[in-house]
UniProtKB/TrEMBL annotation:
Residues 110-333 form the Histidine kinase domain. It comes from Nitratidesulfovibrio liaohensis. GO terms for molecular function: ATP binding. This is histidine kinase. CDD domains: HisKA (cd00082), REC (cd00156). Residues 359-472 form the Response regulatory domain. The modification 4-aspartylphosphate is found at residue 408.
Amino acid sequence: MLACNATGAGRLGTTPDAMLGRMLEDYIPDDLRNRRHDVLASVVATATPATFRDARGIHIFDHSLYPITDETGRVHRVAWLAEDVAHEVALERQLRQAQKMEAVGTLAGGIAHDFNNILGVIMSNIEMLRGTGLTGRAATRADRILRAALRAREVVRQLLAFGRPADEPYVTLDLCRTVADALHLVKPSIPASVTLRTLLPATPLPVHGDATQIHQVLLNLCTNAVHAMPDGGLLDVSLETLDLGGDDVLRGYPELSPGRYVCLSVADSGLGMTAHQLERMFEPFFTTKPQGTGSGLGLSMVHGIIRKHGGTVRAHSQPGQGARFDVLLPLADMPDTGTTPADIAPATVPDMPKSPPLHVLVVDDEHDFRQSVAEMLHALGHRSTGTDSADDALRLLAAGRYDVALLDVRMPGLSGPELARTIRERGFALPLVVCTGNECDITPEELAEMGLTLIGKPFTGDELSKHLHIALKKA
């Protein structure tokens, strides 16, 4: 060793002066010695530079070796540069994960419209079939079909969440209370063979977020934990605060900024996971569960929700030693109101009184969906007229009287929002309901500007009835 800078010596646990004259092998760990020695020997023998990468602990090093020759061309010195690239590697991994999420969101947005039209036909027809007085095995089969369609609708909504921008109006809420409320919902589904233990601080832990989404995060993590313990075990849920400095962020959480965080931990004593499973844990559609028992979207949803909240999630596990998921959320300032943060109840559609008989104009380019909605409206006691084009819809409005119009957002020619704007410009004041399989197709500003009511495809008869009532109340 002829020279070493202070950083390199410090990483090796010594000083530059102490390294002078020593053999390089004295500072190379046994598990890395053979490879590094081979590369060095090759550089000396061929007088050719070489690069390679290896890792030690949390450090990942990119090595560059440059031969220095004398006047005869013989290599008599080698300049060895080592750069710790752990931070860059972590950022690359985060970027790949984000790109996967974005790709799934883009794909979901492309298929959601057509797929939800198909689901809408299935759901509406099976609902009407159930209303014909089915009994016995036929009724059981109809119920099974409807449950499957509703589950498919939820899968599509989860997929769409990946591509949805993080523009939700978050509120300040107490994570302790939010977690406690969520656990009340989780407890009934935990088998007696699993013991739930909680460690929640008595003092509030304020964060900016959406209580419903955090409930979903905890539900997914607890459900996965229970599934990982088929023979029973321990399920631990805890909250604590963390102060992350610059070095902590640099080494362990490159996607975060230094500051104070709340750590929600969900740990189980179950089967554990391999390193390969951990690497892919948050990928959409990746699952460790048997085929048919999981969509592979639960942990991807957890990842997406927490990232939109400005936090991150980490998984720790080894085979046979259980697993622990740590969710980090930025700690918010306590509201200066003299009260503790409160969870905001999710907006729900209340039960509505039955609407009087209506004449509904249904505008949708999908024939089967349009016919299914017409039959659904008939079952609700309403009358409908359907068309597949915006131009025909405008002619029908001019020629007759309608109580409300139901417009598909995506149509050839004029889209639903464009048709709604034209209807308003021509002086028609009837309530307008727009329906879509992807809520990102229309902005809240467009809805407010024209007084539109939004209903997501596919929908049940009850959901349609409630949204018609809401539209009538707006008018």
